[in-house]
Design a protein that fits this description.
The complex is a heterodimer. By secondary structure, chain A is mainly alpha-helical. Chain A has helices spanning 3-58, 64-86, 90-93, 97-113, 116-125, 127-161, 164-168. The chains are: A mainly alpha, B alpha/beta.
Chain lengths: 190, 403
């Protein structure tokens, strides 16, 4: 082959490789963005769950000891979400271990305080009580969904970053590898 | 008097509040009063005749760890029934700010109500959100007692309410007349020092004591460090030099009689607690038993030991200071004798005969002539639609300055 022919071939190969790498980089970028988006969504749902818990605690519908336990656990969650906002990297840091423990505590407190008997009794009372219970349950369900979406997004990123072309050409740069989040987000079955 | 006492924690679990309630109830019974104690309890646990079970405590996250508490509408109903049946002239709740039985009793009572506040170390965020929830309950209390100045300050700071300080009581004679246990008694060649407490809890300070032992062994090679209390010695001894390990004897949990004998026999009792004590009743017990006390200079201990007049204080969390102080006590029999004497005198101020009479004074001040404690109707109905409206009306009236 002529020299021009060889040069053309090399340029073509380089172009293909460059396209392939930038395609992968863009995919990776989208996946990272999805993780960030789902962290924000999870954060919002956690805050919502804590807020409806505080409302329930202050509503006068449950005895004061239960109310205090619930209010304390929910306030811990709200306080720690405030702190997370201050660290502007909530999207990057996401939900750390401390917060995971606090949210687990809130879940456990909800289970301890809102037993099936207590809830059944509340539902028989009036529309207001019924509504409050529904809101708490919905908030718990949304937290569970948000965590699942987040973990799915994280697994996608982890899988992609494990691929040879990503590792070899360091397409992920210096971004931290996101981790799957684990805390007790059980939804009570009332 | 017919007295109803509420304990928020199970009586068969060791704890300062529980011991206080038990001792108080038994003293009042012996003095001829009619006493009923309401407390959480397992079905299987045998209870003294004066204790009534309110149900089994439940594990729930609280105050940074897991607590065993009792709450919920079923419990609230049991509390109401106890009040109705009891015909008490006064109800005495312990630790009502803990979300458990005492809080429910406070809520359910209408009439002479006395409360004793034991704690001074809840995390500062506890009680800030809950103020509104607690306020109306706390206002019902006619007689507020704090077991220490620290507890009183805690109450002032967090709920802006004052209280009378009546300390925890001790049966001084039980300790003063304990038998000497020869195998724990110190000799000039082999002096003995005692530590009592949960060894795995850092705030009990065993690490500080172990840090002071090497220096002490230089002067007293035969020193015996007697450690009583629950916990695994292996974790505590990890990383300690062999000489320290050999000097320690772990006695494990001890019965009340063994505790009294131990305190009666050793050359010195060491309380190296680094914090978290609102009172320090163990110091009183040690002084009652005639043990010269060496304690860290945390506020509660400084107050109990009258700034060093009744016991030797050392700089908190400072092993060399502890070593120097223990040395001063072990080397000077005259000092030990003086500390024993001043300690015993101080301990007598905390004897149950004095403490209980102060408590009975509080009861008598709040008791209304002839009217027994009744169930607060509003609390019964507060969890119904009508009750919610009623309490809203009450709130509005209060805000407007009426009521």
């Amino acid at each position: 082959m002529e020299l021009v022919g060889w040069i053309a071939l090399v340029v073509a190969i380089v172009a293909v490789v460059a396209w392939y790498l930038s395609y992968n980089a863009a995919r990776l970028d989208r996946l990272h963005a999805k993780v960030e988006g789902s962290v924000s969504a999870l954060d919002a749902q956690l805050v919502r769950r804590a807020e409806v818990s505080v409302e329930l605690a202050n509503s006068g519908l449950i005895d004061p000891a239960s109310a205090l336990l619930l209010a304390e656990a929910a306030s811990e969650s709200l306080d720690i979400s405030d702190a997370a906002e201050v660290r502007a990297e909530v999207a990057e840091q996401g939900v750390d271990e401390h917060r995971a423990r606090v949210e687990t505590d809130l879940t456990r407190t909800l289970f301890a305080v809102l037993t099936p008997e207590v809830v059944a009794d509340l539902r028989t009372r009036d529309g207001y009580a019924d509504e409050q219970i529904d809101r708490v349950q919905a908030a718990c369900q949304r937290v569970q969904l948000a965590r699942r979406f987040y973990n799915d997004a994280v697994t996608d990123v982890q899988n992609m970053r494990a691929q040879p072309q990503v590792r070899l050409f360091r397409l992920a740069g210096h971004t931290d590898l996101p981790q799957v989040l684990d805390f007790d987000d059980s939804v009570p079955e009332w | 008097m017919r007295i109803g006492i509420v304990c928020p924690y199970a009586m068969d679990v060791p704890g300062g509040v529980q011991f206080h309630v038990r001792d108080l109830a038994e003293y009042l019974l012996a003095a001829g009063h009619h006493v009923s104690v309401l407390a959480p309890a397992d079905e299987e646990t045998p209870l003294p005749t004066y204790v009534e079970s309110a149900g089994k405590a439940v594990a729930v996250p609280y105050n940074g760890s897991v607590a065993r508490l009792l709450f919920g509408p079923v419990t609230a109903a049991r509390v109401s029934r106890w009040i109705e049946r009891g015909g008490f002239e006064v109800v005495h709740v312990h630790e009502p700010i803990s979300p458990s039985l005492s809080m429910l009793a406070m809520w359910a009572c209408e009439g002479p109500l006395v409360a004793t506040f034991h704690t001074s170390n809840a995390r500062s965020r506890t009680l800030t959100t809950s103020r509104p929830l607690l306020q109306s309950g706390l206002e019902k209390i006619r007689g507020r007692i704090a077991v220490s100045e620290a507890a009183r300050q805690f109450l002032l700071r967090h709920v802006e309410m004052d209280s009378t300080v009546i300390p925890n009581g001790v049966y001084v004679e039980d300790f003063a007349r304990a038998h000497v246990a020869a195998h724990w008694q110190g000799t000039p060649q082999r002096p003995t020092i005692a530590f009592l407490g949960r060894i795995e809890e850092p705030r009990k300070g065993i690490a500080v004591l172990l840090g002071a032992v090497p220096r002490l062994l230089q002067k007293y090679p035969g020193l015996r460090v007697l450690v009583a209390g629950p916990g695994n010695p292996r974790d505590v001894l990890a990383g300690q030099p062999a000489a320290v390990r050999d000097a320690c004897e772990f006695l494990g949990p001890v019965t009340d009689q063994e505790k009294a004998a131990l305190l009666h026999s050793v050359d010195a009792y060491v309380a190296p607690n680094t914090g978290g004590e609102s009172f320090g009743i163990i110091l009183i017990e040690a002084m009652s038993a005639g043990a010269p006390v060496v304690a860290s200079d945390i506020e509660a201990f400084r107050s109990v030991l009258r700034g060093g007049a009744c016991g030797a204080l050392f700089a908190n969390a400072d092993p060399p200071s502890l070593a120097t102080t223990i040395d001063a006590v072990l080397s000077d029999p005259g000092l030990r004798a003086r500390l024993r004497a001043s300690g015993l005198e101080r301990a007598r101020e905390f004897d149950w005969s004095r403490v209980a009479s102060e408590i009975i004074n509080v009861y008598e001040t709040v008791v209304a002539s002839g009217a027994p404690v009744e169930v607060d109707e509003l609390s019964e109905r507060a969890t119904s639609r009508r009750g919610v409206r009623l309490s809203a009306v009450r709130q509005i009236r209060r805000l407007r300055g009426g009521d």
